[in-house]
Amino acid sequence: SCLGGSDNFKHLNEIDLFNNIDPNESKHKRTDRSILCCLRKGESGQAWPRLTKERAKLNWLSVDFNNWKDWEDDSDEDMSNFDRFSEV
């Protein structure tokens, strides 16, 4: 959750992800316009058919394919190369 807007209204969104993530290896950063999340799967090597458990399209949720890292190319590399998350 976060406060935003001229009236500091509290905004809250919950996303039921398709499967578990590793919270210690995942990061997020709030900007003026959005929240950027870099999620690390709890079990690497398993493809998810979608990000969320529900098949419904969430219009406010999108994937930044410029920063997409395919699980097939996964290595022991950490997320330090995601410079937009370095200030988190």
Account of the protein in words:
By secondary structure, the chain is mostly beta strands. It has a domain at 1-54: Immunoglobulin-like, CATH 2.60.40.790. 0% of the residues lie in helices and 16% in strands. It contains no helices and 4 strands. It has strands spanning 2-4, 9-11, 27-30, 35-38. Strands 1-2 form a two-stranded antiparallel ribbon. It is globular, with a radius of gyration of 14 Å.
Alpha plus pi helix count: 0
- What is the distance, rounded to the nearest whole angstrom, between the alpha carbons of the first and last residues? 16 Å
Q: Give the strand line-up of the largest sheet.
A: 1-2
CATH class value of one domain:
Mainly Beta
Number of E-state strands: 4
What is the SS-derived class?
Answer: mainly beta
CATH topology of one domain: Immunoglobulin-like
Q: Largest sheet, if any?
A: 2 strands, antiparallel
Looking at the overall shape, the CATH architecture of one domain is: Sandwich
- Sheet-strand content, in percent, reads 15-25%
Segments where pLDDT lies below 50 for 5+ residues? none
Amount of helix: under 10%
- Principal-axes geometry comes out as globular
Order of helices and strands: EEEE
Rg from C-alpha positions? Answer: 14 Å
What does the average pLDDT come to? 79
Catalytic activity: prostaglandin H2 = prostaglandin E2
Subcellular location: Cytoplasm
Family: Belongs to the p23/wos2 family.
Protein name: Prostaglandin E synthase 3
